[in-house]
């Protein structure tokens, strides 16, 4: 078995020739990383997920309390899903998906156009109450929207040793926005710093960064 496994590890394209049991052993021996199964078995993402589920099941079965009952993993579906739209984009270490009931509320009239509101939830009466609110807004003439600004904000607090140093930080932020913008944007492929506001409260400096995030994830 070890000889077959080593033979399969010669190149990435050969992993697909191994059995699931051999692939599980390869993950456990770290010849394939736990998160690298999709890359090793590309483009067969369904099988990569199947192997990962077997690894997780094997680990779970070794727990003392798990020996008396079946793993809950078998209740989590993974078949009949387009994993090409997920791998490398929306989730890592995939073992399946969780079906959530999907209802629809509305339509709601916004800026002269009607929009249905799909809502995935397990909270009873949530869709019904939203539906009633949407109908009330629509029957009263709808609602108007106005965009005053766009951006994501983050507001860290910096406590300085003295009031004088807090003042110097405040002055630096006000006079060196372009330098701070360059440093900020060097850490991200998509983010663009639009503004920075510094407010002092004693020795504490409250910094509010506002940036557009583009196509950034996370």
TrEMBL record:
**What GO terms are given for molecular function?**
hydroxymethylglutaryl-CoA reductase (NADPH) activity
Q: Note the InterPro entries from the entry.
A: HMG_CoA_Rdtase, HMG_CoA_Rdtase_cat_sf, HMG_CoA_Rdtase_N, HMG_CoA_Rdtase_NAD(P)-bd_sf, HMG_CoA_Rdtase_sub-bd_dom_sf
Q: Which SUPFAM superfamilies match?
A: NAD-binding domain of HMG-CoA reductase (SSF55035), Substrate-binding domain of HMG-CoA reductase (SSF56542)
Q: Name one GO cellular component term.
A: endoplasmic reticulum membrane
An individual GO BP term: isoprenoid biosynthetic process
Keyword Oxidoreductase set for record:
yes
| Keywords annotated in UniProt | Oxidoreductase
Q: Any keyword Oxidoreductase?
A: yes
Q: Which family does it belong to?
A: Belongs to the HMG-CoA reductase family.
> Can you say what this protein is called?
3-hydroxy-3-methylglutaryl-CoA reductase
